[in-house]
Amino acid sequence: MKKRKNNKKKPTKTDNGISYTVCGEFFPEVYPAFRSQKWSRGMEDPLDTEMRLFCSCTRWAFNRLQEDNSRQELKKQGQGTFGINSRYCDDAILKARAVIESQKELLELEIEETEAKLVRAKKKLSWAEKDLDRAVKANNPAKIEDFKHTVHGRKARVKKLADKLDELKVHRDNGPIPKVIFGGRSLWKRVCRGRVSREEWRQARQDRLYARGDETKGGNPNLKISWHNGEFTLSVTISHLSEQKGTDKKGRPIMTRAPRVTGKLWLPEKHRQKVLELLLSGVPYTVELIKGRDSRYRVHITFAVTAPVLVTNPNQGYLGADTNPDGAALANVGYTGQPAPWPEGFTVPYPKALHKFAGEFQITMHPNGFLYIKVPELSYSRGFRRTYLIGVLAKVVVDTAKTLGKPIALESLDFGKDRFDTNRKFNRMAANFPFKKMVEAVIRKAFKQGVGVKQVWPAHTSTIGYYKYMERYGITIHHAAALVVARRAIGFKEYITKELKQKVQAVKEKLSQKVNSLPGEGRGMTRKVKQLFKRLDGKISVHNGLTRYKQESFHSVWHDLKHLALSSR
Q1: Spatial CA neighbour of 457 closest among 393, 551, 371, 542
Q2: Tens digits of residue pLDDT in 56-87
Q3: CATH class for the domain made up of 314-492
Q4: Checking phi first, is residue 460 left (phi over 0); if not, alpha (psi -120 to 50) or beta?
Q5: Which residue of 45, 59, 416, 450 is most buried, as measured by CB atoms within 10 A?
Q6: Which DSSP helix (H) or strand (E) runs through 225?
């Protein structure tokens, strides 16, 4: 018997694929002429009914997947239980599975961070208990009372973290995952406090519709985007309105063609041409339709596209970037590791969309290859405004690198939660410092524009820049750090030079205690500083012979030079 040939086009997979997401707005105009007496509630329109059924199926699948039910079983049951088609049901199951997998990943991360917090809290408790013992020995009633309050508070903190850690480990070892609240935990807490109505919370639980793309079905069969007469349109399949008209040879139901809700799709002008090109190429796209509290329908369209060819060459050098709370410092570094002057006629591409106030976007450019992009509002603006400003900043950085033809060198920074609750000032700085968003925005933008990005180990970049390059090139500490980042990306080691040894010796002579003088603020040498110089004497002599990894390690000579710089201020 001859095997039947399968003429279906198989979806192609891109190895170097990236996601290209566009946000727009949907304006439904044409609705089906009838409603479903079985599935609709009250006066809700068919689109809202379809979204409610899809979200209900997602929550139902979330609970069933934790009971080890298979995807195929849930797919069959879900179609009969919620009345949606097989593709919608399968997408709801995959959304539920993604929630479970993300919660498992977050559980491991939360356990690790809680363990680090607990260690730190126990250490702080021991410090407080020692202070209390000293106060008792000194018989100081005022300090005894203060330290008793401190010990009580830190014991409560240790107990709270220990209980939380035990609970997280039980979830990890025995399951299930911690409780998930669909609709948002913060919104549910506001409902419990009587600040938000239950109806608003229910609306947040049934406000979306999701459909994956399929290359064999023309892009996306359930949420289909079209182009007619110079305008984009979106048609949404209302699957719960289709009816069974018979069964096939295998006993599967044959359904009537489902009606659709159609309307105009608004997309930003800068993305319209790109979306049209992707639609004409037949690339599959994923669409998520979200209904906001203002009853407007937002659309998130994601295309899987091939990564563009790199337009930068690392052999020419790197554009080093040092991120800060109010902007970024850039250094144009050649392949020799030295700062290169800006090309003749070069100008930084100024963003066109900023017209809020004078000085909103400041560029300070130095002819020897350094510049600073300052956005004062970045350090104190609210979430959405900050995200927008970070996107503008990332675009300018990437456009600058593209013009130079050089890849970008960035620090691989990480402020984990384990460092929080150690120092109030640092907590506030780390919570408000949008470094992670900056780095991610630059990487995303660079990847789409074909600009190379290399992240390097961030340890001691500012210290090296302070000692070696700040005075030499007459630049700020941030420019010097950007230079060190670029040199590290190229692969250069940072040696201890004769000039640096002379600087250390000058600081040592300045801090040396004179005859008949007592150590005081800004003069004399304390025991800690003496120990610091003793460690430096041993590390400086062997530093240049170490491997690059050991030279950049946390406890290298630069760690002690950092403390020396702080003590000599």
Answers
A1: 551
A2: 999 999 999 998 888 888 988 898 899 999 89
A3: alpha beta
A4: left
A5: 59
A6: strand 223-228
